[in-house]
Amino acid sequence: MWRTARDSVCLFCRSATRPRTALVETPQTQSWLGLRAFATRPHEPRDRRPSRMVLSDRVSQGPRSRDGPKPRREVDGPWSATNRTVANIDPDRRRGGEGRGRGGPPSRGGPPGRDRGGTRERYLGETRDKDATRFKALKMQRSLASVSYRERLTVKNRISDVDSFDQFNLLPPIQEAIQNEVLKGMVDIKPTPVQRLAVPALMGQPIGRQEREPDPRQSQRRAVEKRREEFLLAAETGSGKTLAYLLPVINALKEGEAGDEAVAAYEKRLAAEQEHRGGAPVSEWIDKFEPHPNHARPRAIVLVPTAELVSQVLTTAKKISHVAKLKVRGISATYNPLKIERNMYSHGGIDMIVATPHLLASMADSDPNILSRVSHLIVDEADSLFDRSFSAETSKILDRATPSLKQLILCSATIPRHLDNYLAAHFPHIRRIATPNLHAIPRRVQLGVIDVAKDPYRHNKLLACADAIWTIGKDAAMHEGASKDEVDVKRIMVFVNERETTQEVADYLLSRGIDAIAMHRDTPENRQSEMLASFTSNAPLSTKADGSDAGSSPVPSAARRLPNTKVIVATDLASRGIDTVAVRHVVLFDVPHTTIDFIHRLGRAGRMGRRGRGVVLVGKHDRKDVVAEVKEAMFMGQALI
Ligand SMILES: Nc1ncnc2c1ncn2[C@@H]1O[C@H](COP(=O)(O)OP(=O)(O)OP(=O)(O)O)[C@@H](O)[C@H]1O
């Protein structure tokens, strides 16, 4: 009778769309009651954020048990006051006592001397502010409190009691690759928190909560349901998640190689053929009659959302596989078709593929065997890859790989509620490995705010952005070993919300003497990869302080030049996961739409324990309160939920 269908008309705004819980006028209500229905709640604002953009605060917990008690339904309606078991008292009034409620009598119980000349109002304002902060802080704490004390203790112990990669039971070539290739030149190499948790877990060693003795009936059911192991790795940006999954997966591939019967039989036949041919090349024979069992059938797949990430993850994977003697190849839209075919169908087989979902899914459509031997599937940046734009392809790959799959690993720095719910529905037994600082921007990253509505910018955001970059650039520094007339090159990332704005901002910055490039699909590839390479390399970069070594600079010759900065202007997706270790400064040209975007954008600076600084430009129509909350949460080191 109290219909809440979408096509109804709201009594408050008379619009077709309606607030979720407001009661609405329907023919039935009119005929039955003979009067018009009225809403029981104030109208909710229409621009509510979609829940898919909201970070989950229960990442480390599994879904609620199906057998557990059902949550009480909220009673709401004209008869909601009846049959209550709890008094419906406004908590504000109950707590504050007299004078706390709005419009209440003047306080007699307040602190002495505070009830005259507006001081009391200020005092009340302050306490309310403090309450609000405490409320938010409490809300944030809830995600920690709901992880049991026992679990937190074990997680904490696990994080602190492993202080070397040698303590993981990785094969010797993989240990060697860590020291001599991946983290080469670093002193005092230690696994990061997520690596301490994830590497042993993915290798089948116990971590975290010691499971209670399982109910035999339940474990029987689980054994049937659970055909593979599923993991969620959730840890802050720049915390080393790539190595956390690559090390155990490559280790498993190498271990599996020895016991692979198909490969062993193939090697035997190959040796016989070689002997038969008396040392003549056998490649033709291989191609025609006896392709390797791994020929175009990788055993592990890493899915990432962008071509830039394909090449980044591939570089790290190759460093390990080169020592471990495994074949890892990449597939992305930036490769020409010939290269893709060569990579996929190289004789001798492939062990691991790093790819974007669209390309791999379309290849699997034409050759379903491609995914027939996959034992490990990693979905990096899982919140993007299970989002609308990628989920069809990602799910298709997952479905095709399922028969042979042993481990599914999802990995992300942010777990929005939509992903959390999706996991609870589709992967109820997934093991959640979440680090304690998840969803928090590290305190070593600071955030400055520029109000562009004020003087001297007067709503000129472009000018404010250029000014911010000039200020950063002017603070010239020199690294050790640089000559006296040289300065360090500062690498700055500017983030905008819309792809179309990237070029506009980059062009303006160029006109103001700043070496900037927009990262979008029309940017010349060589210039883009050259710029990106300088952002992802840790090596110090210097230039002549007077700009005399500008060479073929894109900055117009008439412009006053800022010689020691390089700027990339990008949207969030273009930079997801990119390991911009050299970046210390991020400018948020637009206020990000969600806290998820805040985390990823500011996460390009201050990676792996480095310090960083963000500057956000706030205009007249931007949510200053959101920016203030993010800034405060960053200062407090709290999660942005
Ligand atoms: N144990 C370690 N010690 C020092 N540096 C490390 C360690 N593990 C990884 N790194 C380095 O840390 C940097 C960031 O790692 P990575 O790109 O894997 O982060 P991430 O967690 O995937 O970040 P994002 O969420 O932004 O994708 C890389 O340059 C990597 O080489």
UniProtKB/TrEMBL annotation:
Residues 222-433 form the Helicase ATP-binding domain. Residues 41-50, 64-76, 90-101, 113-130, 209-225 have a biased composition (Basic and acidic residues). The keyword Lipid metabolism does not apply. Residues 102-112 have a biased composition (Gly residues). It comes from Dichotomopilus funicola. It catalyses: ATP + H2O = ADP + phosphate + H(+). InterPro entries: DEAD/DEAH_box_helicase_dom, Helicase_ATP-bd, Helicase_C-like, P-loop_NTPase. One of its GO terms (molecular function) is RNA binding. Its EC number is 3.6.4.13. SMART domains: DEXDc, HELICc. This is RNA helicase. Residues 37-130, 204-225 are annotated as: Disordered. Pfam families: DEAD, Helicase_C. Keywords: ATP-binding, Helicase, Hydrolase, Nucleotide-binding, RNA-binding. Residues 482-641 form the Helicase C-terminal domain.
